[in-house]
Design goal:
With 199 residues, this protein is of the alpha/beta class. It has helices at residues 2-5, 21-35, 73-83, 93-102, 120-123, 127-141, 152-160, 181-186; strands at 9-14, 39-44, 60-63, 87-90, 110-115, 146-149, 169-171. The termini are far apart. The relative contact order is 0.13. Mean pLDDT is 84; it is low at 1-5.
Amino acid sequence: DKARSEKVKLCIFTPNLAGGGAERIAVNLANYYTKKGIETTLMAIRGDGPYKSQIDVEVNFVDLGVSRVRYSLGRIYKELMAQQPTHVLSALRGSSVVLGVALFFNRKPKLIFQEANTMDAITRLSPLKKTRSVLKYRLAYLRANKIIANSPDTKNDLETLKITHHKKITVIPNPVIPNNYQCLADESIKDDWINDANL
C-alpha cells in the first residue's frame, strides 16, 4: 500500500539546544534515526547551546536563527515546505504549539508532539489564565496526528483537560539511549559524598 511504502523523511523540532532534558532527547533522537538510515533534520528556532556539539555530522541541522518563538511562524513554515519532511516530531510543549499554529491549514507533514511533563502548572493558574492556556493547547493540538506522553499521569492530564482525544495519545516512558551509555555508566564517581559513611 502506498502509505506504507512512503519513504520516511523526519524533522525533529526544538526551540534551542540550551541544555534541558527535552533538548537532549531531540539531539539523541536525531542521531539515533540518522544512524538507522532515516533521513533526519534537526531544526532549532535558535541553534545555540551546549548540545550543538553533540549533533552527529550526518544529521541535517537547520538553525532558523530567530530570537523569539513568536516571530518564527513564517520561517518555520517556509523551511518545512523547503525540507518537505513526511513526519515532524516536536520535542517541547511550546514548540508543539508553534508547529500546530504554523501548519494548522497544511495537512502535511504528519505531526507528532512529545509531552514530557504533566500539566500541574496549568491547573494552578487563575481561572482566566487556565482557560486561555487550555484553549491555546486545544487549538494547536487539533493539528497533531499523534501525541507521545512520557507517563500515564501526563496522558491523564491531556484527557482530563480535554486538550486532545485519548486515541491520539501513546505513552512511551523512555527515550532512546545514547550510543555512549556504556562509557558513561563505567565512569568512576569521584564525589566525596559517595564514600561518606555517615550517609
